Amino acid sequence: MPTSPADSPAQPDVPGRPAGGQDRPAAMLSVRDVVSGYGGPPIVRGVSVQVGAGEIVTIVGPNGAGKSTLLKAIAGLLRVESGQVILDLRCLEDERAFAANLASLEAS
Asked: DSSP 3-state assignment of 84?
């Protein structure tokens, strides 16, 4: 039985995981304190989650709990009123704003 990391069998490095075979994958998607809704009172309030490479995540809750609203906010289909959605270490709100500015420059 291994008693130290030096005694444990070597684990191959996996894309999206920290080097050295550590168990916790690096976060590919990070949702931080997201608040979102449809213009009235927020439906999603202060939701945070981290999803690593290769992880499978489910969102479970009763009808009307905000599951679809959260996914739409993460995908950029709904405005994130506060908080951040970070994908592969890039803040998506910053990239959406950049894309919108670029599109308006190209249209003029």
From this structure: strand
For residue 87, give the 3-state DSSP assignment. Answer: strand
pLDDT at 17: 46
Residue 56, domain extent: 27-107
Q: What is the CATH number of the domain that holds 79?
A: 3.40.50.300
| Tokens representing residue 13 in the block | 């490095």
Residue 14: HSE in the Cβ half-sphere, 13 Å Cα cutoff: 14
> What pLDDT digit, counting tens, does each position of 28-81 carry?
899 999 999 999 999 999 999 999 988 999 999 999 999 999 999 998 889 999
pLDDT in tens, 83-93: 999 888 778 77
User: Considering just the CA atoms, what is the radius of gyration of the chain in Å?
Assistant: 19
Asked if 45 and 73 touch (Cβ cutoff 8 Å), the reply is: no
Stated as kind and residue range, the H or E segment containing 32 is: strand 27-36
Secondary structure (3-state) at 43? coil
8 Å CB contact between 78 and 43: no
